[in-house]
Specification:
Number of strands: 7
Oligomer: single chain
Radius of gyration: 15 Å
CATH superfamily: Gcn5-related N-acetyltransferase (GNAT)
Structural class: alpha+beta
Number of helices: 4
Strand order of the largest sheet: 1-2-3-4-5-7-6
Strand content: 25-35%
CATH topology: Aminopeptidase
Number of domains: 1
Largest sheet: 7 strands, mixed
């Protein structure tokens, strides 16, 4: 695998992004939702991690973030199962939040499944704190969602 590049999501990335989403979640977004995020949602900022794998460019991870006034909301984040635990998710978050800060975002939010302890640890390492819980949020198994907030988004504090 070559060096990983973090860049904005493009329309051509949507099939690979949707595949990662489907491999990662029991309730994946429809492919048309990613298409909408790239082409129509002015609040949306899509990101991908890309590298050369076996001589071919491959999308390794993705993130969709919404900017509303001074808040950044991480709507979804996933890394292809074959490339997890390599810091790719953290790198995408840092790039996305750094850019969101430059666009005026000063706080960041997300929801994560209560049982996703690996994600909890990654978000905590990046400075997010648990700020709430949505009971029975996920419709596939009625698992709770944990609300996490990065209250004081500062670029100099974001490290992978």
């Amino acid at each position: 695998m070559s060096e990983i590049t973090i860049r904005r999501m493009q329309l051509k990335d949507v099939p690979a992004v949707h595949e990662i989403d489907t491999l990662s979640f029991s309730l994946p977004w429809p492919e048309r939702s990613f298409h909408f995020e790239v082409t129509e949602n002015a609040a949306s900022r899509g990101w991908v991690a890309e590298a050369q794998v076996n001589g071919k460019n491959q999308i390794l991870g993705m993130l969709v973030l919404w900017i509303v006034v001074d808040e950044a909301h991480i709507a979804t984040l996933a890394v292809h199962p074959d490339f997890r635990r390599n810091g790719i998710g953290s790198r995408i978050i840092v790039e996305a939040l750094t850019t969101a800060f430059a666009e005026g975002a000063r706080r960041a939010f997300l929801e994560v499944r209560a049982g996703n302890t690996a994600a909890h640890a990654m978000y905590h390492k990046l400075g997010f704190e648990v700020t709430g819980r949505r009971s029975r949020y996920y419709k596939d198994n009625f698992e709770d969602a944990i609300l996490m907030t990065l209250e004081d988004l500062k670029v100099d504090k974001l490290t992978c």
